[in-house]
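REQUEST
  id: r-88c1
  op: predict_structure
  target: Amygdalase
  payload:
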Amino acid sequence: MKNETMKFPEGFLWGGATAANQLEGGFGEGGKGLSTADVLPGGKQRLTLLKSIGFDFEIDKDKYTYPNHEAIDFYHRYKEDIALFAEMGFKCYRMSIAWTRIFPDGNEQEPNEAGLAFYDSVFDELHKYGIEPVVTISHYEMPIHLVKEYGGWKSREVVGFFERYARVLFNRYKNKVKYWLTFNEINISFEMPIQGFGFAIQNEEDKYQTTFQAFHHQFVASSLAVKACHEIIPDAKIGCMILYLPTYPYDCNPENVLFAKQESRFFNNFCADVQVRGEYPAFIQRYFKEHNIEIEVQPGDLELLKQYPVDFISFSYYMSRTEKKEKSPEEIMQGNGLGGVRNPFLKTSEWGWEIDPIGLRITLNEFYDRYQKPLFVVENGLGANDKVEEDGSIHDDYRIDYIRDHIKQMREAIEDGVELMGYTPWGCIDLVSASTGEMSKRYGFIYVDKHDDGGGTFDRKKKKSFFWYKDVIATNGAEL
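RESPONSE
  id: r-88c1
  status: 200
  body:
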């Protein structure tokens, strides 16, 4: 249908999103070092390991498979894939750079030229089609050497290594990239520190102290990256990236309303407050006191955070969360990954994620009301089992319905007064799932013939959603 009221602002950045460790492959090629993502096995045991105590960051091929090593081979097929993105009409492409392609161990003095040259080629290919790169500096991976020798983000020294890495990127790509993000879903480390911090919690006793010290180091690193970006590329924009789950009370019991608000503020706003407002929020001080947390803050840290906040807020939105203060183990909503209880008004995906398009409008309004900075939806999508028909076609109407419903709510939020920069649905081409290491959990508009058992031809096929999204972009959201 066509509806002129559904058109988006001129210059709206339509595109798609991926991460280096989930699609590149090229394991060990071009001088690439070993990253934290490289040691995460495939299969549903990955999610258990991500939340486990004492993960050892070792590869055990006798016990596990490692799908990220090969992924979908974007490393060798990026020209083919970017041509498909261009055919859909992408205005931008959100991607990440693998830290270990640039600094294989993380602490070298000089970067790896082969890694830098690879991304030069990717950016050149994007610009050939007029596609603007949106680049995440750190997306769920860091050099294993920094984990084993320094303890990951527990160590203050890693801040300096990250700043060096970021400055190399800004200097090398200052004429090719004008949109940057610092840490992907920085707040995920509350739940899965292995992905965000590069360390596993060793015991419950020091969980709070090590978590918030690592967050402080990342906040300082983020501000140093903002500072460097503004110095080296004055016309560039650099943002944070938050995993946002609007949190509903289970009912109108004031106990549950208060609990839901506290949970939302803690998970959704803590990291954003520091990176956007440039200071620790007042509410966290009570939490620090109650959990005996005393983070080490070096002279000048707080001034740095205040002086160099991010320019915009990017975030992922997949689901909402419903909370009650007292809940039995049977009530906990397992599929959503971050707890809560079942919302009786919502349907779920095949992987148990609740589907809540209106929650995206709520998220956009909550973010904008709190911060009054431009917003960018850089992840949103439906993971599903896609069936290839005998004629090779893939009829993913369920994905079209999901994305259409979320786009409608973005438009409503814009009408509400929200300043929205763009939309990049997650996994615009099928890739390895971050949480489970599966290929069968497909998000893409483009099907990749790669399977959980490692088999497949890597051939690319256009799904029905490919042609639908092409029309959405061509009409700037008027035709859904």
